[in-house]
């Protein structure tokens, strides 16, 4: 069972064996994540305490809202790294991005340049929440054609797939990896999202668990294991599902 996720002495969740978080919003002032460098340092400290040894923070790139370029993101990353070094933190911090699939993303993908990737040349992408793309499968396949590995962020939150969740099996079979938010499994986003995350877990379709931390509240809830019966309910025989 997943009892290793709990620190019995501290009675907190211990994520040391996951090791790397591939989804967070820790660069201040460039998206809907942290607002100050002090927040960034505090959250990195908390993630280190949770057991993470490596962080890939992933600011939104959504051209209607957050026009983040690699230069903006990497400059912000250096600021966070510097502040964390001064604070004496040892966790390794890198940056990629969470790309909203819009026209700007497709244009950038066509050039094959200017994209920030996770290890293994992975691209973290997200879909619209309310209206499905007409060509989701084709777009994800195009990412593969361009030499990248697509990782779909929080699939459990796309409600328009609830009527036929087998679509996630099809996407996985086509080569798309799925990243589920830890708090979805704990019920933070509501019962329906929790049920879908649970379905993905039971069907072994989760490739990565991520914090998707935007603020300290998210990490506090994860550390307390609020509503986290899933931690001991399921047994991942293949532990690579929880690592990079």
From TrEMBL:
Its EC number is 3.1.3.48. It is an enzyme of class 3 (hydrolase). InterPro entries: Caps_polysacc_synth_CpsB/CapC, Pol/histidinol_Pase-like. It catalyses: O-phospho-L-tyrosyl-[protein] + H2O = L-tyrosyl-[protein] + phosphate. Keywords: Hydrolase. One of its GO terms (molecular function) is manganese ion binding. Belongs to the metallo-dependent hydrolases superfamily. CpsB/CapC family. This is protein-tyrosine-phosphatase. It comes from Dyadobacter frigoris.
């Amino acid at each position: 069972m997943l009892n290793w996720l709990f620190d019995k002495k501290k009675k907190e969740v211990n994520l040391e064996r996951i090791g790397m978080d591939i989804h967070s919003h820790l660069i201040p002032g460039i998206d809907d994540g942290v607002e100050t460098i002090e927040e960034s340092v505090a959250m990195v400290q908390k993630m280190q305490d949770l057991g993470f040894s490596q962080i890939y923070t992933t600011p939104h790139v959504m051209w209607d809202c957050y026009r983040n370029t690699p230069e903006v993101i990497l400059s912000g990353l250096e600021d966070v790294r510097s502040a964390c070094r001064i604070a004496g933190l040892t966790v390794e911090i890198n940056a990629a991005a969470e790309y909203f699939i819009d026209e700007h993303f497709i244009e950038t993908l066509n050039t094959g340049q200017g994209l920030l990737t996770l290890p293994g040349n992975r691209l973290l992408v997200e879909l619209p929440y309310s209206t499905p793309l007409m060509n989701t499968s084709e777009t994800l396949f195009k990412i593969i054609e361009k030499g990248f590995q697509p990782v779909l962020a929080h699939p459990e939150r796309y409600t328009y797939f609830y009527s036929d969740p087998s679509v996630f099996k099809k996407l996985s079979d086509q080569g798309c990896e799925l990243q589920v938010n830890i708090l979805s499994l704990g019920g933070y986003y509501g019962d329906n999202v929790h049920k879908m995350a649970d379905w993905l877990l039971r069907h072994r379709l989760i490739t990565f668990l991520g914090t998707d931390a935007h603020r300290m509240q998210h990490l506090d809830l994860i550390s307390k294991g609020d509503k986290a019966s899933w931690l001991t309910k399921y047994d991942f025989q293949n532990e690579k599902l929880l690592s990079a």
